[in-house]
Amino acid sequence: MKQQSITCLLIVLALMLANPIDASAQPSAANHEADDHAAISIETSDAMQSTEQYNSFARTRKKQRKQAVMSWVTLEKRYPGAFVTHGPRNVRRAALTFDDVPDPRYTGKVLDVLARYNVKATFFVLGSLAARYPALVRRMEREGHTVGNHSYNHAVFSQLTAEQYNRQIARTDAILAPLVGYSPRYIRPPYGEIRSAQVQWAKRNGYVIVNWDVDSVDWRSLRSRAVIINVRKTLQPGSIILQHAGGGATQDLSGTVEALPVIIRMLKNKGYELVTIPEMLGSSDGRRQ
Ligand SMILES: [Zn+2]
């Protein structure tokens, strides 16, 4: 193993020891496969977490899954309207959502496809990346898409203190509001991970937590065919579809970009209307304060 990797691992171990995971914490995605996001790496440590952190998180989550305390279904029941994974099932609509943006390699290409098909989507933006690539965030807004908050640097909310969690949201909010003209209402927790008390705080402060019911699993650098199959698998009216338009240096999202026109045509052929999250939930882009 290279010296650098060993140093990284030591840092991660030190971090884990300094901030042990509370066994009584309530993982939200206990039975969800999407939390094994182990592959994202980084351009800089400030922008997103390191691959080592992702891997160690995935391992921890496996342990937590066994303890399975609170599922997304339970959170939806407990906080109706404040924690959602889908929209109304009686309307033939679907919402495309793209996480880990903006990324100069892929976000513009995804925006190009959406513009070509005149489809509006929802982008969950990382504050650290928005600060670095503000023009792409302005473009999302200008082209009619909704911008949501995906934390400042892809932190695992369920492992944060209340203060750290609030700061992840507020810091991103402060970067996004001047770019898009509103304080984003919708928050997507990295990995879909969030504790009950954190949902409660979000609800109290006018935010809505938006996870998904269709996972393209595209973060694994899948070929377009696999992305399309994954989307088709659990699609139903009201579905919120998770995809990525940005990621770490080792992630190849060309499969996502290639699949997108096919997915849009498929959805339209099946009679789906493609809407943004606020359209699906009958709400506005910005937060009630
Ligand atoms: Zn993410």
Care to give the gist of this entry?
43% of the residues lie in helices and 12% in strands. It contains eleven helices and nine strands.
Question: How would you describe this structure in keywords?
Answer:
binds zinc ion; 6-stranded parallel beta sheet; TIM Barrel; 11 helices; 289 residues; alpha/beta
Considering DSSP H and I runs of 4 or more, what fraction of the residues is helical? 40-55%
CATH third-level topology: TIM Barrel
Order of helices and strands: HHHEEHEHHEHEHEEHEHEH
Radius of gyration (CA) equals 18 Å
What profile does the largest beta sheet have? Answer: 6 strands, parallel
Gross morphology: globular
Query: Into which percentage range does the β-strand content fall?
Result: 5-15%
Helix/strand/pairing category: alpha/beta
Q: Measure the end-to-end span.
A: 51 Å
Number of strands: 9
Uncertain regions spanning at least 5 consecutive residues: 6-47, 65-69
Q: What's the architecture, going by CATH?
A: Alpha-Beta Barrel
CATH class: Alpha Beta
Determine the CATH superfamily. Glycoside hydrolase/deacetylase
When the domains are counted, the total is 1
Tell me the number of helical segments per DSSP (H or I, 4 or more residues long): 11
Distinct ligands: zinc ion
Domain NodB homology: 92-275
GO molecular function: hydrolase activity, acting on carbon-nitrogen (but not peptide) bonds; metal ion binding
InterPro entries: Glyco_hydro/deAcase_b/a-brl (IPR011330), NODB_dom (IPR002509), Polysacc_deacetylase_ArnD (IPR050248)
Keywords: Hydrolase, Metal-binding, Signal
